[in-house]
Amino acid sequence: MLLQTQLKALLQDGARGAERHDARHLQRSWRKFAAFAYVVEQYGYRYDGLSPLSPQGSPNPYFAFRRMPDAAERAARTAARYPDALDGGPLPGMRPGGHRLRPLPEARRDVDLLHARIMVDYSRTHRRRGLIALLLIPLVLLIPLSQTGFSGPALLVCAAVWLFFAGLWALGLLIARRRHRKYGEMLRAAGITWPRT
């Protein structure tokens, strides 16, 4: 159902001639979202990175899809070949059946490269997202402290809670950097410079 909703929103933007379509990752996995990005491309919108709509540090950012010069022709051609796409029918480049965002062998490389771009972009959001949370945690901890008093043991518990979340943020940052490096190398090996800015 989410897939149909996202496709309908895309086709509405396409019919209006919108230069940019913004979408959030609503699929079960990032690979499925990359497959969705491949489908979107068949309707005339190319993946363009993080959307300016996204608040800085958002855990669920918007991603931008930029209208291609031949978008109207692409959309018409795809709609003619896949008339039941919005009603649960086959999607361009995807296997038919229950899980509709499984790439066919001929589309797999393109989907993998889209996945790498998306992961590079998403990994860039972790640092700010975690810092915002680390700054908010002490403010949230003031609530129980105001009830129990600012005693030594209460302050130690709050410090331990903050250190726990700081450790989680540091681990997440390490994972995000590794992910950025891994997918960045994959894109460079394919001759793709990403991100463009």
TrEMBL record:
The chain crosses the membrane at residues 131-148, 154-176. This is Integral membrane protein. Keywords: Membrane, Transmembrane, Transmembrane helix.
